[in-house]
């Protein structure tokens, strides 16, 4: 009878949380709790704070501002850095705005989705849907820990286990049920719970959903969003119904040679290392994958120097293809803007706007993970070429619309700097900064556990 009750409780918990895993206790979300028992793992995890460089993508490449015109990523977009900064960077980003109350601000609560073990703690406490339905600013007072132990380990078994029920649902729906995977894939799934493409499902409490029902390649996800009629935003200049791809590392890796050869995120990003007394443990820093050369890469690659060279040239090629695609897509947005101004109708614009949406989706899927040159350069180059081609088709279609309305030449503004590009898409950076400053000083510093300076 006792056994049966326990089983009933377990089933009930699984039904509520959407997963069959033990709940971590509230203390488990706190990284310090794990320090004494696992000093080596804790210390190597803590070194993610050393990867602190803030690289401003918009300053480096102002065309990106125009690509995201009308959307948060035009306000602020940096390269990823150490896991230590996930909560800090989310609070500081201009994208999350300056909500002074629980009910204002541009972002939904699910924006905390890939930042902190406090997410699972809150899901357990209030329910996933109740959490997600609120605004981002409603939960800052609960977000005390950056990406940590309880995001990736079940506190009871210690095993690498993704804490996010929405990820476990998506893995299962894509035919890779967590419980049925080999241990090395289960370990990689701890990364895949966050390093993926996702959206907030308006039909399900704005919970996080991975758009994998039809597959996770670039075309299947695009077909999924098209069939759903989903858009992340309407472009400020072209009025195209746009999609934002979010870091699809898991998806692009699944289509790579390394995946076929059973080399996972963990093999490259979390090599084994030795502590001062010679005991082996897993390095939890996750950056600098190339440092794993001797243990991992050397099984198949000849020398580190060769690999460093290959990475550098792949990076350069991807960058070149990225810029080439941007040059076309940015002009397509302006061409569409000019066509609207000249009096084009929705019916005339429909096909061209769809081409812009598709071109930019391919561009974003290829580059949004920032590591495509290492993970799958072939896929990256192929999609960037298609993005450029599709962008050119959009421009050809728009040329006809423009001609019909008597426009033979479009003039393009100067978008050579981030500030100029932001002004073009109607952003008032001074105002956004001031709003953020007040929010950080008056709300975050006073009421939230993670303190962030302006
Ligand atoms: C991003 C996911 C992730 C985070 C965060 C994380 N771990 Fe791990 N951890 C793993 C994975 C994956 C493995 C298994 C590595 C393997 O199988 O090669 C692992 C292995 C371990 C092991 C087994 C022994 C070893 O060193 O291989 C311990 C103990 C451990 N982690 C403790 C911790 C502690 C303590 C924290 C927090 C300070 C932490 N982990 C944070 C993913 C994570
Ligand atoms: C809870 C969500 C989450 C999990 C789990 C997670 N990541 Fe991350 N990762 C992030 C976020 C968010 C950032 C960006 C943080 C920032 O810039 O503030 C990031 C950044 C990174 C970076 C850039 C680090 C740097 O120093 O530049 C790498 C590499 C990375 N993650 C690899 C991994 C690997 C490998 C795993 C699995 C072992 C993993 N991540 C698990 C969310 C996650
Ligand atoms: C074959 C080895 C390998 C595999 C497998 C691999 N990576 Fe990487 N990853 C790299 C290398 C190399 C880089 C380039 C940066 C570097 O040298 O550390 C990189 C870059 C990244 C970056 C960008 C870091 C930045 O600061 O811009 C992220 C994030 C990342 N990887 C996450 C993952 C995740 C998640 C997986 C699994 C789904 C994965 N990687 C699989 C080798 C690998
Ligand atoms: C199990 C074997 C294996 C291991 C281990 C391995 N690789 Fe590879 N790697 C390959 C193969 C096979 C290719 C494809 C070669 C080709 O097509 O020319 C490749 C290609 C690459 C490329 C070229 C880009 C691409 O994807 O085609 C890079 C960069 C790379 N590997 C980095 C790494 C790094 C970094 C590590 C270690 C962290 C590593 N590899 C570990 C087998 C491996």
Automatic annotation (TrEMBL):
- What biological-process terms (Gene Ontology) are attached? anaerobic electron transport chain
The UniProt entry, under CDD domains, shows: NrfA-like
**Per its record, what are the GO molecular function terms?**
heme binding; metal ion binding; nitrite reductase (cytochrome, ammonia-forming) activity
Signal peptide span: 1-22
What is the reaction catalyzed? 6 Fe(III)-[cytochrome c] + NH4(+) + 2 H2O = 6 Fe(II)-[cytochrome c] + nitrite + 8 H(+)
Q: What are the alphabetically sorted keywords of the record? A: Calcium, Coiled coil, Heme, Iron, Metal-binding, Oxidoreductase, Signal
Query: What's the family?
Result: Belongs to the cytochrome c-552 family.
> Which protein is depicted?
nitrite reductase (cytochrome; ammonia-forming)
Lineage, opening ranks: Bacteria, Pseudomonadati, Pseudomonadota, Gammaproteobacteria, Alteromonadales
């Amino acid at each position: 009878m006792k056994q049966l009750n326990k089983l009933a409780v377990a089933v009930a918990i699984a039904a509520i949380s959407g997963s069959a895993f033990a709940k971590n206790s509230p203390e488990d979300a706190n990284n310090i709790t794990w320090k004494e028992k696992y000093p080596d793992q804790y210390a190597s995890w803590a070194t993610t704070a050393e990867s602190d460089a803030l690289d401003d993508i918009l300053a480096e490449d102002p065309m990106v501002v125009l690509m995201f015109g009308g959307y948060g990523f035009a306000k602020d977009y940096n390269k990823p850095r150490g896991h230590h900064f996930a909560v800090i960077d989310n609070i500081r980003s201009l994208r999350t705005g300056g909500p002074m109350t629980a009910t204002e601000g541009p972002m939904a609560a699910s924006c905390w989705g890939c930042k902190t073990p406090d997410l699972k703690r809150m899901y357990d406490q209030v329910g996933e849907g109740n959490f997600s339905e609120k605004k981002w600013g409603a939960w800052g007072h609960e977000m005390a820990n950056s990406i940590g132990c309880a995001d990736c380990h079940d506190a009871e078994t210690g095993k690498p286990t993704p804490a996010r029920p929405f990820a476990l649902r998506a893995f299962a729906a894509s035919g890779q049920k967590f419980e049925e995977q080999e241990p090395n894939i289960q370990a990689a799934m701890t990364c895949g719970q966050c390093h993926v493409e996702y959206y907030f499902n308006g039909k399900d409490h704005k919970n996080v959903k991975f758009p994998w029902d039809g597959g996770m390649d670039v075309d299947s996800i695009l077909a999924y969003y098209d069939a759903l009629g989903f858009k992340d935003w309407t472009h400020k200049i072209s009025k195209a119904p746009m999609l934002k791809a979010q870091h699809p590392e898991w998806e692009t890796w699944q289509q790579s040679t390394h995946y076929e050869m059973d080399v996972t995120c963990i093999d490259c990003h979390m090599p084994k290392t030795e502590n001062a007394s010679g005991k082996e443990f897993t390095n939890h820093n996750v950056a600098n994958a190339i440092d794993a050369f001797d243990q991992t890469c050397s099984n198949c690659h000849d020398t580190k120097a060769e690999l460093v060279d290959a990475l550098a040239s792949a990076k350069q090629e991807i960058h070149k293809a990225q810029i080439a695609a941007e040059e076309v897509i940015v002009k397509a947005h302006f061409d569409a803007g000019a066509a609207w101004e000249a009096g084009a109708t929705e019916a005339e614009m429909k096909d061209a706007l769809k081409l812009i949406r598709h071109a930019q989706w391919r561009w974003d899927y290829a580059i949004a993970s920032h590591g495509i040159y290492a993970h799958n350069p072939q896929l990256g180059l192929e999609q960037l070429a298609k993005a450029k081609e599709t962008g050119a088709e959009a421009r050809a279609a728009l040329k006809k619309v423009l001609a019909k309305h008597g426009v033979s030449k479009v003039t393009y503004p100067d978008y050579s700097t981030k500030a100029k590009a932001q002004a073009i898409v109607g952003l008032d950076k001074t105002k956004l900064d001031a709003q953020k400053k007040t929010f950080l000083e008056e709300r975050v510093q006073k009421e939230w556990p993670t303190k962030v300076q302006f």
